[in-house]
Amino acid sequence: MASFLSMPSHLSQFLTKHLISPTYLGTRTYKSWQANMAPKSNWGAFWYNALTLQIYDAWVLGFNMSFVWRCTTETVLLPFFRENFSRRHLDIGVATGFFPATALAQQPPATLPAQEITLFDLNEIALRSAKARINADNQKTPVSVTTVHADALAGVPPELEGMRFDSVSLFNVLHCIPAHQERKNRVFELAADVLSDDGVVFGCSVLGIKHHAWWNPLGWMTMAFFNLVGSAFGNWEDEPAVFEQGLRREFEDVKTWIVGSVFLFRARKPKRIDR
Ligand SMILES: C[S@@+](CC[C@H](N)C(=O)[O-])C[C@H]1O[C@@H](n2cnc3c(N)ncnc32)[C@H](O)[C@@H]1O
C-alpha cells in the first residue's frame, strides 16, 4: 500500500487511464509505455520501499558493487566516503543510509561532538529509513539528522536556501536518474550552491554500456534489466567526459577516476555562478 501511494503521479494516472481502456492491450507498445514513463526524474526514486530497502545493502552494495561493477564497497567506496565526510554533511540520494551511518559508527565518538547530517532524497520511505538507521547505529554519538524531501534536479529547495555544508556526497544517485547526462549535471549546480568555500563534493556513478567489458555478462544483464525494463537506472549512455564537463563548470578543482565500471569524482572550490 505504501509503495502504491508513493508511486509517481504520472504512473498512477497512466494505470487509471489505460488499464481500464479496452484499447490498452492492442494499441500500447513497449515503446510508447517507455515514452510515457522515462522522462520523469522520479523514476529513479520509485523502487525504494520497505521490501527493496531490506535487501539493498546485500544486493546493491555487496553483490553488485563487487561482482557486477567491480568497485567494492568495503575497499573502495566506504574508505572514499570516510575520507571526505565532514561534521556538516549533506547526503544526496540516501537509500538505506549505509554510507553516513557506517562512516559515523566507525569514528571514535569523542572526535565528533556535534555531527550534523542532512539527508536529501525524492523518496520519503528512504529518508525515514536512513534517518532511523543513522540514529540506531550511532546511539553513543550526538548526531543531528535532518531530512529534505526534494528532487535533486530541481535546484536548491527552500529548506536548504542559504545553508552551507562542508561535504556533500552523491553516491550512486546519478546513474539512477532517467535523464540526459547534461540534465543530470544540474545536481552539480545544487551541490555547488550549498557547498562551503572550503568544502568538498564527492561521489560515484555506474557508467554507461560502453564501459562494461564484453566478458562481464552480469553487467550487461543488470544494465539491460534496470534501464530497459524497470527504469531504476537511466545510465545507458553515461560517459565520464560529460560528468567531468558538468563538474568543471561548477568547481575550480576537479578530480575524476574510474574503478571497474564506476566513475568517481571529488570537486572543491565552487565557482559561485549566478543563476
Ligand atoms: C542507488 S540509491 C543510492 C543510495 C546511497 N547513496 C548508496 O550509495 O547506497 C539512489 C537513491 O537516490 C534517490 N533518488 C533517485 N532519483 C532522485 C532525484 N531525482 N532526487 C533525489 N533523490 C533521488 C533514490 O530514492 C535512492 O534513495
UniProtKB/TrEMBL annotation:
SUPFAM superfamilies: S-adenosyl-L-methionine-dependent methyltransferases
The entry's keywords: Methyltransferase, Transferase
Database matches in Pfam families: Methyltransf_12
Alphabetized CDD domains for the sequence: AdoMet_MTases
GO MF annotation: an example: methyltransferase activity
GO process terms (BP): methylation
Domain Methyltransferase type: 90-201
Descriptive protein name: Methyltransferase
